[in-house]
Write a structure and sequence with these properties.
Radius of gyration: 21 Å
Number of domains: 1
CATH architecture: Alpha-Beta Barrel
Distance between the termini: 15 Å
Order of helices and strands: EHHHEHHEHHEHHHEEHHHEEEHEHEEEH
Strand order of the largest sheet: 1-2-3-4-5-7-10-11
Number of strands: 13
Structural class: alpha/beta
Length: 455
């Protein structure tokens, strides 16, 4: 457990606020429509004005790593030209982390991009976005050469390319939306590979990884058809993206599934060379829960499901063996995180860091305290499984729960909270955004102090 990175995570648009300050351009997440009564990200957790206080809280907690993200539009408001004040903001965060012995792990792309690039050429639908992303990466890699040791390319490409309100591509035709999603995903994979290669040229000592939302999939029954359906679901929702990140190509199964769906991405000459040129140094795992699927007996695509759940090969169904809560609708499954570690390492043989893992709950502030024993139980049970895998020899080098402080959830605002630190605001009233340490903060502090021995 020496040098294990006990950390915590956030993302830029979900914590920063300051959406129109100091030269920041509009992000796709700034202009999206949210339901009435749900907080948007214009203020979020007001980290833009509280970042020094927040990093001192991280020091008090004992964090060894802070995984966060840059807002692309803060650094490059129009997607092309640099905003020095945006660079300065992140430079302060990075150096304040280092001064307090916290390893900064920045993510280049976490669910948002300059709206200007969507307006200009359609964002990820257009191959021009590849070059825009690589130039953005070049700016960041050059600025923090020799300073940042760990980089992340794209967070949860699965979600980033599927959620139209996050990537700015709104398509009413569900069939075309699905086809566009796979094309956008292909472009993002090319951009990611080019960025990896670029880092190796600019800062060879730095490491760069990918972070994926992982879907540990169980078959509904032991019938061969249900088992195959579960395999297909994992191929599409987990291995497809990781195969591109690590191996530079889709599996034969995925190629055939996409062909049947008429969703095979359009390629150009030279793409294969780019995709096979480099691979990540590590894989980040975002795990919250597992899912269960069964054979799709109708063999038709249900376009009412979330985009990556759409397939004629499987049908998502409830898992009767898991406890469910309001915000954890798929059920709580600690053993699933260990199963995922086995599967991913056995397929890719790369070091692993848990970059997100957390319990959503509508926390209630009582006498200036948050008694979130439910979150402690969730984190404890999952960390135990992670440590079992590590003790068995799997190269897991860090664990970052989601999230350090309460963040504005992309679709549920502040009624859905994950943080170890409470942010005093509601969806409709920003209030003072005071930071209040939850019971889980003090519990995790002891976990870190004991290097995982006191769970």
């Amino acid at each position: 457990m020496n040098n294990f990175l006990w950390g915590a995570s956030t993302s830029g648009f979900q914590v920063e606020g300051g959406y129109n300050l100091d030269g920041k351009g509009l992000s796709t997440t700034d202009v999206r429509q949210v339901k009435e009564g749900i907080a948007d990200c214009k203020v979020a957790s007001d980290h833009y004005h509280h970042f020094k206080e927040d990093i001192l809280l991280m020091k008090e907690l004992g964090l060894k790593a802070y995984r966060f993200s840059f807002c692309w539009a803060r650094i490059m408001p129009d997607g092309h030209h640099v905003n020095q004040k945006g660079l300065d903001f992140y430079d302060q965060i990075i150096h304040l982390c280092l001064e307090n012995h916290i390893e900064p792990i920045p993510t280049l792309y976490h669910f948002e991009m300059p709206q200007a690039l969507v307006d200009e050429f359609g964002g990820w639908k257009n191959r021009r976005c590849i070059d825009a992303f690589v130039e953005y990466a070049r700016i960041c890699f050059t600025k923090w050469k020799g300073i940042v040791n760990y980089w992340v390319t794209i967070n949860e490409q699965l979600i980033a390319m599927a959620a139209s309100d996050l990537n700015g591509n709104h398509e009413s035709d569900k069939v075309l939306q699905t086809k566009n999603m796979y094309q956008m995903s292909y472009h993002a994979s090319l951009a990611e590979k080019k960025a990896m290669k670029l880092l190796k040229e600019i800062d060879p000592k730095a490491k760069i990884g990918v972070v994926n939302a992982v879907q540990n999939v169980y078959p509904y029954s032991s019938s061969p058809e249900d088992v195959l359906a579960a395999m297909d679901a994992e191929e599409l929702m987990m291995y497809m993206l990781l195969d591109m990140s690590v191996k530079g190509e889709y599996s034969f199964r995925v190629k055939n599934i996409l062909k049947k769906m008429n969703c095979s991405p359009v390629k150009e000459d030279g793409d294969d060379e780019i995709l096979h040129a480099v691979q990540p140094d590590f894989i980040g795992i975002n795990y919250y829960s597992s899912i269960c699927v069964k054979e799709n007996k109708t063999a038709t695509v249900n376009y009412q499901l979330p985009p990556f759940f759409r397939s004629s090969m499987f049908e998502v169904c409830p898992n009767e063996h898991l406890k469910k809560t309001k915000w954890m609708a798929n059920g709580i499954d600690p053993l699933g995180i260990r199963s995922i570690i086995y599967k991913i390492y056995n397929r890719y043989s790369l070091p692993i860091i848990i970059t997100e893992n957390g319990m959503a709950y509508s926390d209630v502030l009582e006498n200036n305290q948050i008694h979130d024993d439910y979150r402690i139980d969730y984190l404890k049970s999952h960390i135990k499984e992670v440590l079992i895998a590590k003790e068995e020899g799997y190269p897991i080098f860090g664990y970052c729960p989601w999230s350090f402080i309460d963040v504005v959830s992309s679709h549920q605002g502040f009624s859905k909270r994950y943080g170890l630190v409470y942010v005093n605001r509601t969806d409709e009233d920003v209030m003072d955004c005071k930071r209040i340490k939850k019971n889980s903060f003090y519990w995790y502090q002891k976990v870190i102090e004991s290097n995982g021995e006191k769970l």
